[in-house]
Structures are given as structure tokens and as C-alpha cells.
Amino acid sequence: MKKEIWIPLTRIEAFKKAFVSLAKKSVKLGVVAPKLTVSDEKKFFKIPHENRIYDSNAIVFTEVPIEKVKCHVEGDIPVLNGWKPIAKIDHQLVDPSGKHVNLVSIMRGNDSDSKVEEMGERLDALMACKPNCDHCKQQRVRNQTFLLYNEETKEEKQVGSTCVDDFLGEKSIGKMINLFDINYLLSTDYDSELRDDYSSGRRTNEFIPAELLVAIADSITRKYGFVSMPNSTPTNPSTASLIKHEFRKPGADSLKIMSDFVNNKENIFISSAKEICAWISSKKPENSYLISSLSLAKREFIDLSEFFQVAIAASWPNSMIKELENKKQSEIKLNEYFGEPKQRGKLKLRVSGLYSETETMFPYVAVTMFDDQGRQFRWKASMGSCPEINIGKTYVLTATIKEHNEYKERKQTQLTRCADFEEVEPGTAAPEFLAPKKPSRKNKVTDELSM
């Protein structure tokens, strides 16, 4: 027997442990054990997978990439007293008329073995055959029989499990069962784990296309800002936690993104997610964060049941926003204060950051903004006074300059009493900050008298 099999990378250690255990048992029974070689060759396979993303509307994703490692198994199917096992049949009587529905396990030899192919063609007949024994020829209830083949005489016999030792010799039934246990291990369909029934209650993989998950992450980040796990609190959950919640009970925004993704419709967040995934894929593996990110981006799917994967992908939109913002500011290189304290007027500003602080006596939202010249503005708004604004959007607003300060050599203009937010296009001309003063009543009277 010489067989090539591909085992999922996540299952290879358990596979090796089970194989070694059965090989040791073979040696104890006096049978030559097969040899397993695990190669260094790895490859992604696309496996059919049906996944429920949210309760109200099942979405089907047809292919999930699973990384597997190539293994080689070598060894001969033992011949016991001239007979080679070719199939194990577990019998089940389904009605008094004598109809059987059997579970058949075919012994796998070389992939080109003609006997394996023949057994496959006879599968329907074997699944319905009666539990006869060609050795004792007694008609009685049997739960298990074995098909044996003699290569010299070309005979085939069906032998009951209780007659195997008498037919082939002492301890033959133990050798037979161990051999079929090895056969089962080598024939296991590991891909079926991706098709588990959700009603079974088992923890299952929940593979979400990376672009869809990143689109949801981008929507949440732009609306609420990014919150990492270390900075999260019970009242201010992490962005990763919000993503998982949206896939369980999606709000209107997330539901729209999911629907557009499934139906291949245009959506700004899906388009943005494609750019973000391409951006992270272009990075070099310079640290552990980028190594993990590149690995996930390569798979193209995120396992929603693995929180670490969700947390890594959730950070991509914020990382890209920060990098682009830093690049933009370095190109402008205008580091100065704006206006004078107590002045109030209109500004055109782009929102670059939102941070919520709830674990304090007076919860607030810290908003970071920039004008067209690259000057930085900061506004600390109470939770109730902050309007619904999104990162990356540009607004015209009315504000009062509170004070000027500096942080990490960056000059900041602190604002207060921000109001009248109106979203505008980035190319819109900035309004005049201080409106022209109206002439006072005293000056107006003086002018009239002098005429």
C-alpha cells in the first residue's frame, strides 16, 4: 500500500498521535505496522461550506480555503493465512421482512487497486446484503461480517466476526479490527467538519469572507471610532466585539452591507474593504501583527468563532486610516495654531479620529479633526452633545476656540461649543471663520449727522 493524503494543518498533530497509537497496537498483534511520513509541502484547498451568518436570512458561501499538509503512508495490507480483508460490513435489520441497511467500510489499498474499484461498484449490493457466514454457514443474527479475498485461488468469502479466529487463526479478529481502524483513520473526511449541522450544538467554524467582515469593521470604525481589546470596557466594547454582535443581530447598516455583498451590488464600505485588504496584503512581515494579518489576508476568510482572527481583521480599517492620515499630514507639514481663544466662527474640518471614554464621572467623546492646511483641532464633547459624525467625512461647523496647547510637538487648537454640523464634499471652499462685523448703532448715527 502506498497512499498520498492531505490532512488539514489544524488536525495534523491529532492525526499523527492516533496513527502512532494504532501502529504500536499493530506491532503488539504481530502485524507489520504501516509507515507515516509528513512532508513539508502545504497547500490551500477550497472546500464547499454552507454557513449561516445571521438568523433571519441564511447566506451560503460555497468555498472556504483550508490549508493542508501532504502525508505519505506506506505498508502492505496483511495477508492472514492466505486471505486478505477487503471490506467490513456492519449490519442493521430495519424490518421483520429481512431487509438490511448496512454500513460498509472498504479496505483502501493503492488508489489504482482494481479490487477497491470493484468494491465501489458493488457498494449498493453490500449495503443490503444479509449477515451470512461462509465458514460456519449457520443462519443467525450477526452484527458484523468481513469480506475476505484469496489472491491465489481468487475466492471470496463472507465471514462472521465470531468465526474469524476459527477461520484464520488465533487473534485474527484483533488484527482485523485494528487494520480497519487504521483504514478508517486514513479515509476520514476532515472536510465534513465544515458541513456540521448547527443544530448539533457543537462549536463549529463560522467562516466569513474577509472583505465582508472588513466592510462591517470599516462601517463601525468610521461611525464609532476604533476600540482595541485593552481599551475596551463593559460600556465601551471593543470593535471586534461589535463586529461579532453585528453578525448575530445586524443593524440596518450592517444588514445593507451584507445584502449588497451577497447580491454583488455597489457599496462604499465593500469597495473600501477591497482597498483595505489589498493594502494589508501589500505589507511586509515586519512584526507579529503584520505576520498574523498577512496570514489572514492570504486565507481570504475569517473564522468568526476565533476571536483573535476577528480582532486582527477589525484593526485593519483603523490602521489604514491612520497611515493615510499621517502621510497626508507629513505632505502638508503645517504645524500651527488657528485663531485666538474665545473667537467663534465657522470651520471646515475633516474628522480623523473618534475616541469614547465612558469610565469616568463625566463620559465624553474625543474628536480629532484637521483643516485643509493640516492644522489639528480637538474637541472633547459630552456624550449627549456629540452629533453623529463619521471618520473620514468633512463637515462645516460652528465652534469656539477654547485654548491652544501642544502634544508630542504637535500644535493643537482646542474647540468648544461645536454645533451646526453639515457634511460637505472635501473640495468645498472653506467658509470665512470670522464674519464681518456689522457697524455699531453709534457709528451709524454719527455718519448720518455728518452728511
Account of the 3D structure:
The protein contains 13 helices and 14 strands. With 451 residues, it is an alpha+beta fold. It has four domains: 2-76, no CATH class; 84-168, no CATH class; 207-326, no CATH class; 334-424, Nucleic acid-binding proteins (OB fold (Dihydrolipoamide Acetyltransferase, E2P), Beta Barrel). The strands form four sheets. The chain has a five-stranded mixed barrel with strand order 10-11-12-14-13. It has a four-stranded antiparallel sheet with strand order 5-4-6-7, sandwiched between helices. The longest helix is centred in the N-terminal third of the chain and has 17 residues, at 12-28. The relative contact order is 0.08.
